[in-house]
Design goal:
- The protein has 100 residues and is α+β, with helices and mostly antiparallel strands.
- The chain is built from three helices and four strands, in the order E-E-E-H-E-H-H.
- The chain has one domain: secretion proteins EscU (name from scop, 3-Layer(aba) Sandwich), CATH 3.40.1690.
């Protein structure tokens, strides 16, 4: 699971989405498992921190994803942007495992 957040310095509410994707997954795209703005976004981020779930800040991507309902796969036009984040997180995980 990954949580993405958007925090703008302008007085806009925080936004957050959580995606779930398993590397072993044979079919389908990452799914939105949580979407929120304001208080709900803060709770999504807080839970991710508590559970040590990676958090990535990407305002542009989050601003697009918050308009989709929970449970849907990410739209095809966002595959590349999400894939780049997943690759980055995979590399971080591999580095972390190498240090243990």
């Amino acid at each position: 699971m990954i949580v993405m957040k958007s925090v703008k310095k302008i007085k806009q509410p925080k936004k957050a989405v959580a995606l779930q994707y398993e590397l072993e997954q044979q079919e389908g795209a990452p799914r939105l498992i949580a979407v929120g703005e304001g208080y709900l976004a803060e709770k999504i981020i807080e839970l991710a921190q508590t559970e040590e779930i990676p958090i990535v800040e990407n305002h542009e991507l989050v601003s697009k994803l918050v308009h989709f309902p929970v449970g849907v796969e990410i739209p095809q036009e966002l595959y590349e942007a999400v894939a780049k984040i997943l690759v980055y997180l995979y590399k971080l995980e591999q580095e972390r495992k190498g240090k243990e």
